[in-house]
Amino acid sequence: MKLRVDGLSVRFRLPGAVVQAVTDARFELREGRCLALVGESGCGKSVMAHALLGLLPANATVTGHAWLDSLDLITAGERTLAREVRGRRIGLVPQSPAAHLTPVRTARAQLAEALRELDRPETPDELARRAGLRPGDLDRYPHQLSGGMAQRVANALALAGDPPLILADEPTTGLDRPLVEATMAELRRLCDEGRAVLLITHDLRAAERVADDVAVMYASRVVEIAEARTFFTAPRHPYAAGLLDALPTRGFTPIPGRPPELTRLPAGCAFQPRCSRATALCDEQPVLNGVACHHA
């Protein structure tokens, strides 16, 4: 399995404005590896995820390509995405898993329904064991599940179609630290089983726990891609370095200023107004070659 995103851009048409949500994104992800897509809220990470699944609203315009092996997810029709991709080739672990479970149905009933829809021969108990759940936990309703159990049910639903790619969209939102660690351990286990995981998160500590590679987004663009070990020891883009410096364990030094509005992005480097290394070169958009910075 290989996911190759090539020149992916997403625009939202609003009355009197266009939101440049994702611009010319490029990255690759292979089986057995976890790519963490990190950045501040609003930079375009979750829009990227929804674009890959064909779940954007009607006012979105998508260009570029996202190849899942030989299938272009961007040009594939809704029929193909619904019947062949969602659940079968890409499993989604959503934000706030408990909120995505049907409150009046047990976990068992929801897993059984997913297996029926995907024409899978497994039983809910077998699927539960694969996600680290005890079969007895399946007879509970969502409000009876702990945060960790709800996360595992969400993982089980994502695994129901045995997809080679798991897309985890901010899966640690609202979780305390022990549950974050447990969630990351589950995602790492999926990678170690041979699946690919695209982890979308603003939690750098979580990304460091599980990722093989890191892609950093800022103001709709991927500005750095590196192996996780290299990124967390020697980030090259000034924004990436600023993200790490803002961690409590690294000095808690915030990045000055604010990101630009996605309706008014500059022609050059969007980080220029906040960057201590900015020069006139930054008036031109840098090319992403591992890092998109004229001074890296």
From TrEMBL:
Its main location: membrane. The keyword Transmembrane does not apply. This is Nickel import system ATP-binding protein NikD. Residues 3-244 form the ABC transporter domain. Belongs to the ABC transporter superfamily. It catalyses: Ni(2+)(out) + ATP + H2O = Ni(2+)(in) + ADP + phosphate + H(+). InterPro entries: AAA+_ATPase, ABC_Ni/Peptide_Import, ABC_transporter-like_ATP-bd, Oligopep_ABC_C, P-loop_NTPase.
